[in-house]
Amino acid sequence: MTKADVISEISEKTGISKEDVQITVEAFFNVVKGSMADGHNIYVRGFGSFVNKKRAKKIARNISKNTAIVIDEHYIPSFKPSKVFVEKIKTSEKVKV
Fold first, then answer.
1. CA distance 70 to 35
2. Residue 51 maps to which CATH number?
3. For residues 48 and 83, what is the distance between their CA atoms, to the nearest angstrom?
4. Could you tell me if 59 and 33 lie in one domain?
5. Please, what is the end-to-end C-alpha distance for the chain in angstroms?
6. Per-residue pLDDT tens digits for 3-33
């Protein structure tokens, strides 16, 4: 399912025009990206959490040059689904196909 499919489905279910839904969805994504870039986590009850995960400094190998490189400590965005979300997927008949 693509973002356009999600926008179409929301539009059909709510009766709101696709243009308004698209603006809302884009605004949501921009808020999530901006907040996470500022170091804030986002918690959506019943859905999940968008969190920044810390990756420790480590030494990696460049196989083609046979050298070691240092990867500094950094953060990556991550999504952790809520227990309600996980349970819904586990009990879904369509996923088990």
1. 28
2. 4.10.520.10
3. 8
4. no
5. 17
6. 999 999 999 999 999 999 999 999 999 999 9
